[in-house]
Design goal:
Blueprint (H helix, E strand, L loop, with lengths): L1 H16 L6 E5 L10 E6 L5 E5 L4 E5 L5 E5 L9 E2 L8 E6 L5 E5 L4 E5 L4 E6 L9 E2 L8 E6 L5 E5 L4 E5 L4 E6 L15 E2 L8 E6 L5 E5 L4 E5 L4 E6 L20 E6 L5 E5 L4 E5 L5 E5 L19 E7 L2 E6 L4 E6 L1
Antiparallel strand pairs: 1-27, 2-3, 3-4, 4-5, 6-10, 7-8, 8-9, 9-10, 11-15, 12-13, 13-14, 14-15, 16-20, 17-18, 18-19, 19-20, 21-22, 22-23, 23-24, 25-26, 26-27
């Protein structure tokens, strides 16, 4: 019996002294805030590399699995030139996503365009003239107003959150741009409505990040409406959390939850929607049964790493899940951080 108690004590002490990884930690950027200037959208490849659209640096950055930050594409000067990775120019790139063939798509918030980076390193403009405004039609003639989010459905359609047009646009595989959802007022300084409904009868106010699930449901971070929206493949728009411009910080059901300018989101395979509640300086989720739960952040801005709900964040943006961790960038802290799920 004494031997058994002694062995149990040794095992207990070993468990207590074993080093465990923090639940919330910084991956890159904390020691050098020039590496990530104003990171916005983010996605990951299958090898653990993270691709970050850096609005302030006018480039696409890549963070390798060992935490090194590299300029992946762009000259770090604003422009619209296509070409090879290091000679192509970007203007405030915002949203990013991969397709099944390894092409990386970039929404150009300042460039008024949508770009494609091929696996062999060619940057090509696939839609947008560079002019700010609103026009559907052939991709080369279409006009956007500060596109922010981008995702791709199973049929190869590229969906774009056209922020200041307050609409979701679609680029079909044959190169036609149409308005998929949203309508009403246009312009950066206008206050558009909040309304659920079918396709263009619905209303958004500054849609930002987009995400898509395996069933081609599209999820929208409807920033100025302080809500998360869902669009079914046939164009029906509903609200998952937050309503009609009300802002604040509260968890609970769809009716109880309050958000404050969510900008980016990620649709997990189990039906959970993770999102950056940017002006609440929080990371939150919507469970499959519709509950909004805060995962990290207190609602106050800053930088600390304690228990997730006691830690301070600053303007979290791009977000994705990889290998059991929730990764997110912070524009205010110039960092890439991860949260153990």
């Amino acid at each position: 019996m004494k031997a058994l108690l002694f062995l149990s004590l040794i095992l207990f002490l070993g468990a207590c002294t074993q080093q465990t990884e923090p639940v919330l930690s910084t991956v890159a950027g904390a020691s050098d805030t020039t590496l990530l200037v104003e990171p916005f959208g983010m996605c990951a490849d299958g090898e653990g590399n993270f691709y970050i659209a850096d609005v302030g640096k006018h480039c696409m950055s890549r963070v390798t699995p060992d935490g090194k930050v590299q300029v992946f594409a762009g000259t770090e000067k604003p422009g619209a030139a296509d070409g090879k990775l290091k000679s192509a120019e970007f203007n405030s790139p915002s949203g990013v996503c991969f397709d099944k063939n390894g092409n990386l798509y970039v929404a150009g918030f300042g460039g008024q365009n949508v770009r494609r980076i091929s696996p062999n390193g060619e940057v090509t403009t696939i839609a947008g003239t560079g002019e700010e405004g609103y026009r559907d039609g052939p991709a080369a003639e279409a006009i956007f107003s500060s596109p922010r989010g981008v995702c791709i459905d199973s049929k190869g359609n590229i969906l774009v959150a056209d922020c200041w047009n307050h609409r979701i646009r679609k680029i079909s595989p044959d190169g036609m741009v149409t308005t998929f959802a949203g309508g009403g007022k246009r312009g950066e300084l206008v206050v558009n409505d909040w309304k659920d409904g079918t396709d263009t009868t619905a209303r958004f106010d500054a849609p930002c990040g987009l995400a898509i699930d395996a069933h081609d449901n599209i999820f929208v971070a409807d920033a100025n409406n302080n809500s998360i929206r869902k669009i079914t493949p046939d164009g029906m728009v509903t609200t998952l959390a937050g309503t009609d411009h009300r802002k604040g910080l509260a968890d609970g059901t769809k009716e109880e939850a309050i958000l404050n300018v969510p900008t980016e989101l990620f649709a997990a395979p189990d039906g959970t929607i993770y999102f950056s509640d940017t002006y609440n300086h929080c990371i939150r989720k919507i469970t499959p049964d519709g509950q909004v739960i805060t995962l990290a952040g207190t609602g106050e801005e800053g930088f600390t790493e304690q228990e997730p709900l006691e830690s301070l964040l600053s303007n979290p943006r791009g977000i994705c899940v990889y290998n059991g961790f929730l990764y997110f960038v912070e524009m205010g802290n110039h960092t890439l951080r991860k949260l153990k799920l």
